[in-house]
Structures are given as structure tokens and as C-alpha cells.
């Protein structure tokens, strides 16, 4: 038995703003949305799915996800250029990863990382 995917569900204070961030800044596509106005939606990119749900009370419950990427420096440079909120600066970590962390408009944190060559 194996697990083939993980789909985090991130709360959003403003679902429309979060969808715009994932689509316009991170290059995800809208897979679906539910409700009028939308209360739940899903965005996809490169085989990754993230669900976003409208938060009942603004500012409560945030989530985190770690995304493995092949060129973390390119991601970092692009997100800095887009004026994204960088929560943890890029760096080589003792746990063998080069990574950094951002926040989306809802305060959910997304880490981007890649293994450091030769470190195990």
C-alpha cells in the first residue's frame, strides 16, 4: 500500500484573493470551485493540488505545506520579484535542504525546498 498524493486544505480570509494569488503569482490553474459565492475551491499545478476554503472567522487557523522543487533559487527569485511575503529567508539548512517559506494572503505558509547535493 502506498500514498500517491497529498492535498492540503488551506483556510482563506478572502477566497477570491487567495485564488488570484495561487493562479497569478504561483501559476496554478483553477480545477474547480463550489458554492455561490465560492466557499471551497481547488487549484492544480504540476500534479499538485491545493484546496482552499473560506474561513468562517477571519484570522483563525492557518496551515503549512512543504513543496519539493527542482530549482529553489529560481522560485525564490521569482517570488521576491513578485513582492511575496517571505517569512523565512532562503538558506541551506542542517537537515540537508535549501529552502525558504512564504505566506499566502490567508496567512498559510508554503515552504519551497530542494535537497542540497551531497548532503544526506
Keywords for this structure?
4-stranded mixed beta sheet, alpha/beta, 120 residues, globular, 2,3-Dihydroxybiphenyl 1,2-Dioxygenase, domain 1
Fourth-level CATH superfamily: 2,3-Dihydroxybiphenyl 1,2-Dioxygenase, domain 1
Percent of residues in helices comes to 10-25%
Q: On the 0-100 scale, what is the average pLDDT?
A: 91
Instruction: Going across the biggest sheet, name each strand in turn.
Output: 1-4-3-2
Description:
It is a single chain. The protein has 120 residues and is an alpha/beta fold. The protein has a single domain, classed as 2,3-Dihydroxybiphenyl 1,2-Dioxygenase, domain 1 (Roll). Helix content is 18%, strand content 41%. The protein is built from two helices and eight strands. It has helices spanning 15-25, 72-81, and strands at residues 9-12, 29-34, 40-45, 48-54, 64-68, 86-92, 97-103, 109-115. It has a four-stranded mixed beta sheet with strand order 1-4-3-2, covered by helices on one side. Strands 5-8-7-6 form a four-stranded mixed beta sheet, covered by helices on one side. β2 (29-34) and β3 form a beta hairpin. The longest helix has 11 residues, at 15-25. The radius of gyration is 15 Å and the shape is globular. The two termini are 26 Å apart. The model has no long low-confidence stretch (mean pLDDT 91).
